[in-house]
């Protein structure tokens, strides 16, 4: 947790001087994270989508519509949105940030996320932003919660306060990598507990995480908050697996 204050301060001032992906020198203005070529490889998630989970339908003639998965199993969150696809230069940058503990990359990704225009998200209706918590053991290993860094940038940009005290991770789960959606659901079930119900009941909350893979983590967080009395829970992630 020690690094969090530090991160939130420096995210305002530090910008990479070289492209996060290819290390080519960047012009000093406008501030960018990637050179034009690498930026061109990023898939920004815009266009027709499922209004609930946010999955993109490329070239859909029918516009926005519920996806099969949300029709079959209605999630606990009202909407989940992501800025970019989790692949290529974004995947590498997120790994540098989380596992390589690269501060500059984290600050740059936070800026990329907060600059993204989530067209159908009304920030003004939310009472608080809730970063998806790490288990205390994982937090100590990593030294920071990547979701909190991203949440702080979004909160500052959209004027929504951050509250990381509402949700705790009580169970140290195995990595979700390599598990299918069912196994992920079982692995994460009961992993979170809500605290301070008086700050949850009747409130509109927005969860923030780095990556949306199958949605099981976000859904479990949303379930925990809704069962504790939240009126509405939405989610924003930096990236999404397509
Ligand atoms: Zn580049
Ligand atoms: Zn959906």
Shape descriptor reads globular
What is the chain-wise order of helices and strands? HHHEHHEHHEHEEHE
**How many individual domains?**
1
Number of helices: 9
Output the strand order for the largest sheet. Answer: 1-6-5-2
Calculate the terminal CA-CA distance, rounded to whole Å. Answer: 31 Å
Which percent range fits the helix content?
Answer: 25-40%
**Global mean pLDDT:** 89
Q: Report the β-strand fraction as a percent range.
A: 5-15%
> Strand tally, please?
6
Bound small molecules, deduplicated: zinc ion
> What Rg is obtained from the alpha carbons, in whole angstroms?
17 Å
Main sheet properties = 4 strands, parallel
Output the structural class: alpha/beta
Low-confidence stretches: 1-12
Structure, described:
With 242 residues, the protein is an alpha/beta fold. 34% of the residues lie in helices and 14% in strands. The protein has a four-stranded parallel beta sheet with strand order 1-6-5-2, sandwiched between helices. Helix 4 crosses helix 5 and helix 5 packs parallel to helix 7. The longest helix has 13 residues. The chain binds zinc ion (2 copies). The site of one zinc ion has 8 residues, from helix 2.
């Amino acid at each position: 947790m020690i690094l969090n204050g530090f991160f939130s301060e420096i995210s305002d001032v530090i910008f990479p001087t070289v492209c996060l992906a290819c290390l080519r020198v960047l012009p000093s203005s406008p501030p960018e994270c990637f050179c034009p070529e690498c930026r061109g490889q990023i898939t920004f998630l815009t266009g027709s989508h499922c209004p609930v989970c946010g999955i993109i339908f490329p070239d859909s003639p029918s516009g926005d519509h519920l996806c099969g998965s949300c029709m079959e199993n209605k999630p606990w969150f009202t909407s989940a949105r992501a800025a970019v696809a989790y692949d290529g230069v974004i995947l590498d940058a997120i790994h540098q940030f989380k596992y390589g503990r690269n501060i500059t990359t984290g600050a740059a990704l936070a800026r990329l996320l907060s600059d993204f225009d989530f067209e159908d998200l009304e920030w003004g209706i939310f009472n608080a932003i809730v970063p998806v918590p790490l288990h205390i053991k994982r937090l100590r290993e990593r030294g920071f919660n990547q979701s909190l860094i991203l949440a702080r940038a979004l909160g500052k940009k959209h004027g929504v306060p951050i509250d990381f005290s509402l949700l705790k991770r009580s169970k140290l789960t195995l990595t979700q990598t390599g598990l299918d959606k069912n196994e992920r659901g079982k692995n994460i079930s009961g992993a979170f507990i809500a605290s301070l119900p008086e700050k949850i009941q009747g409130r509109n909350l927005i969860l923030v995480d780095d990556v949306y893979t199958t949605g099981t983590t976000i859904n479990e967080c949303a379930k925990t908050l809704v069962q504790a009395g939240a009126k509405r829970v939405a989610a924003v992630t930096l990236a999404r697996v397509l």
